[in-house]
Amino acid sequence: MNRVPTGVKGLDELMEGGFPEGRSILVAGACGTGKSIFGMQFIYYGAKQHGEPGIYVTLDERPDLLRQDMLMLGWDIRKLEEANMVHIIDGSIAKIGIPSEEEFSMPATGFDLDKLLLEIMRTSKRIGAKRVVIDSIPALGLNFQGEADIRAAILKLAYILMRLGVTTVMTSEVKEGENSFGKYGVEEYVVDGVVVLHYLGVGTRSNRTLHIRKMRATRHSEDLHPMEIGADGITVHKVEREYEKY
Ligand SMILES: Nc1ncnc2c1ncn2[C@@H]1O[C@H](COP(=O)(O)OP(=O)(O)OP(=O)(O)O)[C@@H](O)[C@H]1O
Ligand SMILES: [Mg+2]
User: Fold this and answer.
1) Domain 3-7+20-197: which topology?
2) Can you tell me which atom of ligand 1 is nearest the CA of 30?
């Protein structure tokens, strides 16, 4: 099976070289754990280092703010967009009913999953996308009535992305300490991999960790790895590194 380098320093070697190609991976964590940075790092390095075009669907954060945040990490997303290597689809503004200034966006008349899927398919075909990020899954569910609807929607999303042949990162918010990785109790089963980001907001030194909870078709580390968000994004460390300090 082909492997897709994640772009996250130190992560590929923990899972036989990267994500399994063409599969979906859920990145779960509480707020501020680095899910969006993880997603953009996957897209940025995919485009920049591996020549793989990527689509970033942003449902929570406005694209202009996202670009600004990423520029702080030294990632010039605009430049990659101009080169047709990255496309941001704005699904954030449709939810509040204000027209987007983005080239690729959902209509202001309201959020519509089918329209979003169509936009992903169209963009994917046009730029030859190999990577997709959906940030975030819970944000998709705003207009759904019941849990059954959102389950069906997530299944549909996963199926369509699988048919497109892209490798997908989906993000999901979970409360710290909760023993579930998706909000709707189906995400974690639909996807082929789950990466959990933790942030223990205590102490003075870095207290972020990353844990590969599952990765189908892959041998992977089962440890809780220290990670940091630095000037150039996320770096994951081997567990041994921790002991070296003592
Ligand atoms: N340039 C930077 N250098 C160091 N740390 C940073 C930098 N930029 C962001 N961070 C850290 O990353 C966190 C935000 O990361 P990110 O937006 O990816 O989190 P998230 O999990 O997507 O959060 P949310 O659930 O709110 O969407 C910040 O709270 C901050 O701690
Ligand atoms: Mg986020």
Assistant:
1) Rossmann fold (3.40.50)
2) 25
The predicted-structure confidence for 197-232, as pLDDT tens digits, reads as follows: 999 876 656 689 999 999 999 999 999 999 999 999
SS3 content of the chain, % helix, strand, coil (to 5): 35, 25, 40
Q: Residues with beta carbon inside 6 Å of ligand 1? A: 29, 31-37, 60, 72-73, 173, 229-230
The Cα 2–Cα 60 span in angstroms is 31
Ligand 1 atom closest to the Cα of residue 171 is 22
CB 158 within 8 A of CB 190: yes
Residue type present at position 227 = M
Residue nearest to atom 26 of ligand 1 (CA): 31
Find tokens 């204000």 and name the residue: 98
Q: How far is the CA of 168 from the centre of ligand 2 (A)?
A: 16
Please report, for the chain, the start and end positions of each structural domain, with discontinuous segments joined by +: 3-7+20-197
Tokens of 121: 């398919």
Tallying the residues shown for the chain, one arrives at 246
Mean pLDDT of the chain: 88
pLDDT in tens, 124-161: 999 999 999 999 998 887 666 677 787 788 889 999 99
| Distance of CA 27 from the midpoint of ligand 1 (Å) | 14
The model's pTM is 0.92
